[in-house]
């Protein structure tokens, strides 16, 4: 059974207002591997994670997680399914009224009837894994961004999920904590046989941990493959992104009218005429 | 001519769109209330409710009691100067008690509650939304409506009527201080006139019903504004203002309707 | 843990204060009495005109409150008002048969209440009996009319 994909995304359409975000995305996420979804800013990578988590509903198409159509589940079944997923938010999203220990204990307390001593052991185990066992009594306000994200990772792992979704785990991290996070994600995935989905635009780090990559641009998957095959991909859009070239088919400018008309004042021309 | 016509239709279209938006928001708010307020609380739910009772109830007590004291004192002072012209200063107790129980305590306590607890509820839930705490709770498989919203709603429903009782009691005592201790109204007539004219069911009871209605409306508006806001710092500040404005208007408007039904012989 | 205990204690106090407040509003402000119904008895009295008398008005004897008006209804046999009084049980069997009940007004514009005064009959009123000797309320308009007509006849 390990060969069947854990997540299947079929012909996904999603729009926000007038703005189309996805136009027919197809994707499969294999079980027990790290799959990275990459793309320039503003291509809706975070939106894709929210669609997978069932927080947004697509206009068309469907998402299967372990064979279940996420958007056809009842509210209760969806919440049950979510117990098998963990999600790491960009900001960490720790509960500000609880300390570090209680944040990690939160999923255990609400979903299990474990005795307090066992909860304590499990929480310390998870905190040890992210190297923050000593920080258990701090409040989220006292943590640095990197520490908050590691606590959030410990919380996401608290229920030993089968799937972890990482939303931009490397953004705004100093090189050291970035390295720590990369190691953590890699190690956890190997040790716990997790399926991971990493959404990011940090190429180097993502390439180093991903088993498989999807590249999204203009609401579609423009390329996919292992890091090695993408590195030598000839598609100009792919090579521009992978190699970080400023000029190429992916425009640097937000769509606008012709530059000289904007500068010369179209309005003045029309009023005088 | 053409442009005038089209701007006219555009205006009507805009009005229509506003109407649709308003109806949609009301519908969302209704579903929101039903989803979060109805349900059996768990053991954990009780603990969370208690915590919120502390925030919206106990911490609002001081401001409500102080305001009640002053309003009772002012009522007695104003009432005395009017009643003494008719030689009816014995009726002071009656006047103070009836105005407090029927009108001032439910309304003023609700307005203070909206400013003190309502705006704080909106800001708190809004901040939880802006920092993705609500989303992450959902992803952990916990319904934020039950975990975050429901305890706050129920705490508001219970706390405001208690605060209103406190307001009345302190206000009547404040009236006693000014009327009897200072202005020299006979103590016996202050209390006996009050007792003869105040009916427990009609006056105290109706005042409590008013206060319960205000509690539901104010807490509902506050919590919904927090939950439904645009998750930016500007969105939070706007939603906090909206909470105070909407709930004050709702309290005053509903007060007229309730008074007309309860005491207006409708 | 300790902080949550003090918090729980605070909320508990808050709710007790609320209950005490309602009790205060009931007893002190609206004048409800805690006495059980077994400690009282009923008498009836018919009045030709009750003026502004209302249920729950005081019943006094020599100025001391001894009971309350329970109900007021129209007696369709005599077309007068039948008033049911609920009195303290210590007066049961102590009021003579020719006691009078009159409707009085506190001050010129105050509320109306019933004043009882005992007579000299050796027989006593039992629970449920009717007070025969009653005095109706003074209606201000009638009083003025009388006064004016007296002036005119003089």
TrEMBL record, chain A:
<protein>
    <recommendedName>
        <fullName>ABC transporter domain-containing protein</fullName>
    </recommendedName>
</protein>
<dbReference type="GO" id="GO:0016887">
    <property type="term" value="F:ATP hydrolysis activity"/>
</dbReference>
<keyword id="KW-0813">Transport</keyword>
<dbReference type="Pfam" id="PF00005">
    <property type="entry name" value="ABC_tran"/>
</dbReference>
<keyword id="KW-0067">ATP-binding</keyword>
<feature type="domain" description="ABC transporter">
    <location>
        <begin position="7"/>
        <end position="243"/>
    </location>
</feature>
<dbReference type="GO" id="GO:0005524">
    <property type="term" value="F:ATP binding"/>
</dbReference>
<keyword id="KW-0547">Nucleotide-binding</keyword>
<dbReference type="InterPro" id="IPR003593">
    <property type="entry name" value="AAA+_ATPase"/>
</dbReference>
<dbReference type="InterPro" id="IPR017871">
    <property type="entry name" value="ABC_transporter-like_CS"/>
</dbReference>
<dbReference type="InterPro" id="IPR027417">
    <property type="entry name" value="P-loop_NTPase"/>
</dbReference>
<dbReference type="InterPro" id="IPR003439">
    <property type="entry name" value="ABC_transporter-like_ATP-bd"/>
</dbReference>
Automatic annotation (TrEMBL), chain B:
<feature type="transmembrane region" description="Helical">
    <location>
        <begin position="243"/>
        <end position="263"/>
    </location>
</feature>
<feature type="transmembrane region" description="Helical">
    <location>
        <begin position="55"/>
        <end position="84"/>
    </location>
</feature>
<keyword id="KW-1133">Transmembrane helix</keyword>
<comment type="similarity">
    <text>Belongs to the MlaE permease family.</text>
</comment>
<keyword id="KW-0812">Transmembrane</keyword>
<dbReference type="InterPro" id="IPR003453">
    <property type="entry name" value="ABC_MlaE_roteobac"/>
</dbReference>
<feature type="transmembrane region" description="Helical">
    <location>
        <begin position="153"/>
        <end position="176"/>
    </location>
</feature>
<dbReference type="GO" id="GO:0043190">
    <property type="term" value="C:ATP-binding cassette (ABC) transporter complex"/>
</dbReference>
<keyword id="KW-1003">Cell membrane</keyword>
<keyword id="KW-0997">Cell inner membrane</keyword>
<keyword id="KW-0813">Transport</keyword>
<comment type="subunit">
    <text>The complex is composed of two ATP-binding proteins (MlaF), two transmembrane proteins (MlaE), two cytoplasmic solute-binding proteins (MlaB) and six periplasmic solute-binding proteins (MlaD).</text>
</comment>
<dbReference type="GO" id="GO:0005548">
    <property type="term" value="F:phospholipid transporter activity"/>
</dbReference>
<comment type="function">
    <text>Part of the ABC transporter complex MlaFEDB, which is involved in a phospholipid transport pathway that maintains lipid asymmetry in the outer membrane by retrograde trafficking of phospholipids from the outer membrane to the inner membrane. Probably responsible for the translocation of the substrate across the membrane.</text>
</comment>
<keyword id="KW-0472">Membrane</keyword>
From TrEMBL, chain C:
<dbReference type="InterPro" id="IPR003399">
    <property type="entry name" value="Mce/MlaD"/>
</dbReference>
<dbReference type="InterPro" id="IPR030970">
    <property type="entry name" value="ABC_MlaD"/>
</dbReference>
<protein>
    <recommendedName>
        <fullName>Mce/MlaD domain-containing protein</fullName>
    </recommendedName>
</protein>
<dbReference type="Pfam" id="PF02470">
    <property type="entry name" value="MlaD"/>
</dbReference>
<feature type="domain" description="Mce/MlaD">
    <location>
        <begin position="42"/>
        <end position="118"/>
    </location>
</feature>
<dbReference type="GO" id="GO:0005543">
    <property type="term" value="F:phospholipid binding"/>
</dbReference>
<dbReference type="InterPro" id="IPR052336">
    <property type="entry name" value="MlaD_Phospholipid_Transporter"/>
</dbReference>
<dbReference type="GO" id="GO:0005548">
    <property type="term" value="F:phospholipid transporter activity"/>
</dbReference>
């Amino acid at each position: 059974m390990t060969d069947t994909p854990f997540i299947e995304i079929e012909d996904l359409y999603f729009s926000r207002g007038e703005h189309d975000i996805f136009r027919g995305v197809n994707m499969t996420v294999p079980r027990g591997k790290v799959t990275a979804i990459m793309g320039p800013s503003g291509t809706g990578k975070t939106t894709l994670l929210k669609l997978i988590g069932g927080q947004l509903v697509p206009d068309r198409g469907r998402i299967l997680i372990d064979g279940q159509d996420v958007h056809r589940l009842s509210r209760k079944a969806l919440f049950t399914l979510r117990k098998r997923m963990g999600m790491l938010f960009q900001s960490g999203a720790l509960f500000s009224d609880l300390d570090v220990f209680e944040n990690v204990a939160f999923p255990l307390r609400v979903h299990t009837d474990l005795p307090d001593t066992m909860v304590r052991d499990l929480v310390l185990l998870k905190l040890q894994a992210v190297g923050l066992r000593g920080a258990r009594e701090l409040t989220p306000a006292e943590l640095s961004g990197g520490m908050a994200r590691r606590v959030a990772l410990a919380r996401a792992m608290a229920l030993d999920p089968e799937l972890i979704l990482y939303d931009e785990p490397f953004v705004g991290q100093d090189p050291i904590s970035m390295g720590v996070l990369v190691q953590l994600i890699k190690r956890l995935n190997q040790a716990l046989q997790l399926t991971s989905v990493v959404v990011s635009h940090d190429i180097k780090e993502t390439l180093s941990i991903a088993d498989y990559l999807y590249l999204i641009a203009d609401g579609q998957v423009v390329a996919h493959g292992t890091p090695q095959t993408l590195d030598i991909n000839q598609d100009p859009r792919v090579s521009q992104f992978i190699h970080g070239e400023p000029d190429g088919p992916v425009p640097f400018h937000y769509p606008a009218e012709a530059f000289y008309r904007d500068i010369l004042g179209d309005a003045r021309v029309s009023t005088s005429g | 001519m053409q442009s005038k016509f089209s701007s006219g239709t555009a205006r009507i279209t805009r009005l229509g769109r506003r109407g649709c938006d308003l109806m949609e928001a009301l519908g969302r708010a209704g579903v929101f209330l039903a989803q979060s307020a109805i349900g059996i609380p768990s053991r954990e739910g009780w603990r969370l409710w208690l915590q919120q009772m502390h925030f919206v109830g106990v911490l609002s007590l001081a401001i409500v009691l102080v305001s009640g004291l002053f309003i009772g004192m002012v009522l007695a002072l104003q009432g005395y100067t009017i009643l003494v012209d008719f030689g009816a200063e014995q009726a002071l107790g009656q006047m103070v008690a009836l105005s407090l129980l029927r009108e001032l305590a439910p309304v003023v306590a609700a307005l203070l509650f909206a400013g003190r607890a309502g705006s704080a509820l909106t800001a708190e839930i809004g901040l939880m939304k802006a920092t993705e705490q609500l989303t992450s709770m959902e992803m952990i498989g916990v319904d934020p409506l039950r975990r975050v919203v429901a305890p706050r709603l129920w705490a508001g429903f219970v706390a405001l009527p208690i605060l209103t009782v406190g307001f009345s009691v302190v206000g009547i005592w404040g009236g006693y201080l000014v009327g009897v201790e200072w202005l020299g109204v006979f103590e016996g007539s202050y209390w006996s006139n009050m007792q003869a004219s105040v009916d427990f069911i009609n006056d105290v009871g109706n005042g409590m019903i008013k206060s319960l209605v205000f509690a539901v409306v104010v807490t509902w508006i506050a919590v919904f504004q927090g939950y439904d806001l645009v998750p930016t710092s500007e969105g939070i500040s706007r939603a906090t203002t909206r909470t105070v404005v909407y709930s004050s208007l709702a309290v005053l408007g509903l007060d007229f309707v309730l008074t007309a039904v309860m005491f207006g012989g409708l | 843990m300790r902080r949550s205990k003090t918090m729980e204690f605070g909320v508990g106090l808050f709710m007790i204060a609320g209950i005490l407040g309602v009790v205060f509003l009931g007893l002190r402000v609206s004048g409800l009495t805690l006495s059980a119904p077994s400690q009282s008895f009923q008498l009836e009295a018919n009045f030709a005109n009750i003026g502004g008398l209302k249920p729950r008005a005081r019943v006094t004897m020599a100025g001391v409150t001894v009971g309350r008006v329970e109900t007021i209804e129209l007696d369709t046999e005599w077309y007068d008002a039948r008033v049911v009084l609920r009195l303290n049980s210590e007066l049961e069997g102590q009021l003579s048969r020719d006691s009078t009940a009159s409707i009085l007004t506190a001050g010129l514009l105050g509320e109306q209440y019933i004043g009882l005064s005992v007579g000299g009959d050796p027989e006593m009123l039992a629970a449920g009996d009717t007070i025969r000797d009653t005095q109706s309320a003074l209606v201000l308009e009638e009083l003025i009319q009388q006064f004016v007509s007296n002036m005119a006849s003089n």
